[in-house]
Amino acid sequence: MTVSRKLMEKINIAFANGDVDFIFELVADNIVLNEVGHSIAEGKAAFIKKMEPMRDYKPDVYRVHRTLIDGDTAVVEGEMQSAEDDKLVTFYFNDWYTFKDGKIINLTAYLIKQTQEK
Length: 118
Known about the structure:
alpha+beta; Nuclear Transport Factor 2, Chain: A; six-stranded mixed β-sheet; globular
């Protein structure tokens, strides 16, 4: 399966809207989520547990700067912002997706958090 730009747009819209059920449908049973420098979750149940707190979470700003696709791999670079305790919190992300048979089998996420006074 070649990954399409349309599919990646749908995935990012789901993340922007906290629609984790859409994401859960796309992951393989043996998915590996590597949040670089933080943790690794192996298997769909571990992935769901890790992602469940994002359910219905809608950042104030969600931007995709670019999406690169090469065969079964897609890379998405962007940022999301929200206000927390009188501070502006920005997460810059770079997510690497690997697909097999139409399912996400690996998601490697690089995430940088920046906090600023409002």
